[in-house]
Design goal:
The structure is a single chain. The protein is of the alpha+beta class. The chain is 27% helix and 25% strand. The chain is built from 19 helices and 28 strands. A seven-stranded mixed β-sheet has the order 3-5-1-12-9-10-11, sandwiched between helices. Helix 9 runs parallel beside helix 10, helix 10 crosses helix 11 and helix 15 packs across helix 16. The chain is globular. The N terminus is likely disordered.
Length: 786
């Protein structure tokens, strides 16, 4: 693993930025002292189990819970009718605003009269133990009439298709176009055209910790504290306030340690309202932790996309236009707006000059679990389409795959590069910085591109089929509108950072402590970071869209600078010295060259914290603290190149990785070790989406893969060593010059892997379009080509 160092950018003093440092979160986790939802000591809590819909689509005619209420250990059995008096409406008011939506399809807390996917919660049993609650579920009598299910998004938009929801006019929940330039004229003038169709699938997040919620009502101050492993605690609080109709001061949401998120925990699920409502109704603390089967059938995930695309290009292979249609499986309701398909459509452009483009996007309601982001959030699908089209162009013109990309790349001299595409918020999609050709060049060099033909020929003589794949990517990161952070030093001298950002295992606390320590010239492990607690920070957005270093990182950086300047100003008054002659070192402000003339941060904080009857130092405001809401002026775009070498067994369809190289540019890097981990983990996620993960359903919408015996994940024997090479082109859009990194490895992996597999099978003439590329599918392609 190699890493290139970058030049300084922004205000700092401790030179911690850019250093490989161990994470401050790791010691308690490695010692088994983590505090996950199921670890929280709540001995008086009752436990919850949910009765879930056995049908993908059905009309709930009646439900009889009378026997279940008499079962041993059962305290209550609650249905929609029981919870409705506590709620402001029949549905959870959470659809994100979008002009593309034709109607709102918000989820229900519990099924009222129509179930729309297998696993949708219908009733909840509250009992002394989880076992007792689950036993009582069997006593509930459910009369549910089957209704026709929509299980294919393309078929669901055909005339005469059944409705996925009886309360919606049709299945077309949203329609939008990305359209610029004279597309039809470009096709008419083009020397060449190609047409391809892709059917892509992406499964769930499958974090090691499933979803969990613990709720404690406090009758003393009439408040409700919710512990949930959500990625967005502040949004969860907003939705609870809106759904329950109670004041913000009565609700606190805390995100404790989290065993991964990867997108699904950003969505607000029905259980996150059901437990707080039930706790208010019963006046008892409640706990629910999702079991793995529930995770398969009830947690949001991404679903199918069908792309029908056509490319026009000149005689040298330069793109002139793309046009086509995208049909997106939206699932049964709208927990996360229309982000996924629009992300996919905009990410098609990638690091390339695309003069004209038209994509018509249709979102189809289906009877599957609601569709919401998993790592990459639609971008891997869009990038796959562009990279596959470029490979097809290279094949048609007999031009090397690297050269066809080089001819189409945006040049560094064109940065910043505005595209004609409008973002969801109406702003222009503009790339802020990057050197895409150099990134590809470094990746090809590190991956041994030049001498691969000799290696491939040698392998063929041995009867082995090896191939080398290439893919580029860009990713929009640092999504706003802002993130909040405060830094405070009390009379104890302890430094505490609070932020609206939240942690899901990606090292957020370490990153923020490193940034604060860099400015204040103290070790990161001496700083306490409180993240994901709505009581600690009034406003915030949390973990999604590779945003936290950009938004929360810059907020903490700016707050630390303000605290440092205030400490120097106060110490100058206390030491009767000029602030220019002072330095901050080892937790104290001292006169340069005269270390005995010093005031500790604790002494300074005590002095300006206020002593009754005594004045503050002249010109200094109270408190050694600062609060900053950092507004992200625009999205920042990271980029990179993947080069993958793989061997394929044409007799079994098995794919084995030989090497994997990523050259990654996320602007200025705070901690290369954390970025390495994020990139490698994201590549593993991309490998899973490409070769293994497939959430299958039958024609009635019944899930067929609900265990890890039939839904496969990449493991240590299938994920190769990933060599990460860092580039740094700082963005001009924030003081630190940083961009996000957490999803980028997933975005290019499917295209790079498929490119390698197709290259290995060149003697068979195999063309790969659909994902996932399971051995069964690959063998079918090989036999058809033969």
């Amino acid at each position: 693993m190699t890493a290139a160092s970058g030049s300084g950018h922004g205000a700092s003093s401790g030179q911690l930025i850019g250093r490989r440092m161990t994470r401050v979160e790791d010691v308690p986790l490695l010692r088994g002292q983590g505090r996950f939802v199921d670890d929280l000591p709540m001995p008086d809590a009752l436990h919850v189990a949910f009765l879930r819909s056995p049908l993908a689509h059905g009309r709930l005619k009646s439900i009889d819970v009378s026997v279940a209420r008499t079962e041993p250990g059962v305290h209550a059995v609650l249905t929609f009718a029981d919870l409705r008096p506590l709620l402001t409406s029949d549905r959870i008011p959470q659809a994100l605003p979008s002009g593309a939506l034709r109607f709102d399809v918000d989820p229900q807390v519990l099924v009222k009269d129509e179930a729309t996917y297998v696993g949708e919660p219908i009733a909840m049993v509250v009992a002394q133990s989880r076992r007792a609650a689950e036993d009582a579920l069997a006593s509930i009598l459910l009369d549910i009439e089957p209704l026709p299910a929509v299980t294919d998004p393309c078929a669901g938009l055909e005339p005469g298709a059944p409705k996925a929801r009886m309360d919606c006019p049709d299945n077309l929940v949203a329609r939008q176009s990305i359209d610029y330039g004279d597309v039809d004229g470009a096709f008419a003038r083009a020397a060449h055209r190609i047409k391809e169709r892709y059917r892509l699938h992406k499964g769930g997040g499958h974090s090691i910790e499933t979803r969990g919620i613990a709720v404690r009502p406090d009758p003393v101050d009439d408040t409700l504290t919710i512990y949930a492993n959500t990625q967005m605690p502040h949004r969860a609080k907003q939705l609870l306030v809106a759904a329950l109709g109670i004041a913000e001061s009565r609700i606190r949401v805390v995100a404790p340690d989290s065993g991964g998120g990867f997108g699904p925990k950003a969505a607000f699920h029905p259980e996150e309202l059901a437990l707080p409502a039930a706790a208010l109704l019963l006046g008892r603390p409640l706990k629910w932790v999702e079991d793995r089967r529930e995770n398969f059938v009830a947690t949001v995930g991404e679903r199918d996309q069908d792309w029908d695309m056509e490319a026009a290009f000149d005689a040298e292979g330069r793109l002139l236009a793309l046009r086509g249609k995208l049909c997106h499986d939206h699932g049964s309701c709208t927990p996360y707006g229309v982000a996924l398909a629009y992300n996919a459509g905009t990410n098609v452009v990638g690091p390339y000059v695309l003069p004209t483009y038209r994509l018509d996007i249709n979102w189809c309601l289906t009877n599957f679990v609601p569709c919401a982001p998993t790592r990459g959030a639609g971008r891997p699908q869009g990038m796959y389409v562009m990279e596959r089209l470029l490979d097809a162009i290279a094949t048609k013109l007999n031009v090397p795959r690297d050269e066809i990309r080089r001819r189409n790349m945006i040049q560094p001299s064109q940065m910043p590069y505005p595209t004609p595409i409008r973002q969801r918020d109406g702003s222009t999609m503009a790339y802020d910085s990057g050197d895409y050709p150099e990134c590809q060049r470094r990746a090809l060099e590190a991956g041994g591109w030049a001498d691969f033909p000799a290696r491939q020929a040698a392998a063929r003589r041995e009867g082995r089929y090896v191939g080398l794949g290439l893919a580029n990517y860009v990713e929009a990161t640092g999504r706003g509108p802002f993130e909040s952070a405060s830094l405070r030093i009390g009379a104890s001298g302890k430094i505490v950072v609070t932020t609206g950002a939240s942690a899901q295992g990606q090292g957020t606390k370490s990153m923020l402590a490193q940034l604060a320590g860099d400015v204040l010239n103290v070790p990161p492990d001496s700083i306490t970071v409180v993240a994901g607690d709505t009581a600690g920070t009034a406003m915030g957005f949390g973990a999604f869209a590779s945003r936290q270093t950009v938004t929360a990182g810059n907020a903490v950086h700016r707050a630390a600078i303000e605290v440092r300047e205030k400490a120097l100003k106060a110490a100058a008054e206390m030491l009767e010295a000029s602030a220019e002659d002072l330095e901050l070192k080892d937790g104290a402000v001292q006169v340069k060259g005269v270390p005995q003339m010093r005031k500790t941060l604790a002494q300074i904080a005590h002095a300006i914290g206020g002593v009754p009857g005594f004045a503050l130092p002249n010109g200094v405001t109270p408190g050694l603290a600062s609060s900053v809401d950092f507004p992200a002026p625009a999205l920042t775009y990271c980029n990179g190149t993947h080069v993958c070498e793989a061997e394929v067994d044409p007799e079994t369809g098995a794919v084995r990785f030989i090497s994997y190289v990523v050259v990654h540019d996320s602007g200025r890097i705070i901690n290369p070790m954390i970025v390495d981990g994020q990139v490698m983990g994201a590549v593993a996620h991309g490998i899973g989406a490409t070769l293994y993960e497939w959430m299958r359903f039958d024609a009635d919408g019944q899930p067929q893969t609900v265990t890890y015996g039939d839904y496969l994940l990449p493991s240590t024997d299938t994920v190769p060593r990933v060599d990460v090479v860092h580039m740094e082109t700082p963005t001009p859009l924030n003081p630190l010059g940083v961009k996000g990194a957490a999803e980028s490895g997933t975005i290019a992996a499917p295209a790079a892997i498929v490119s390698a597999v197709e290259d290995a099978l060149k003697p068979f003439g195999v063309r790969i379009r659909d994902l996932p590329l399971t051995p069964e599918r690959l063998l079918t392609l090989i036999r058809a080509a033969k």
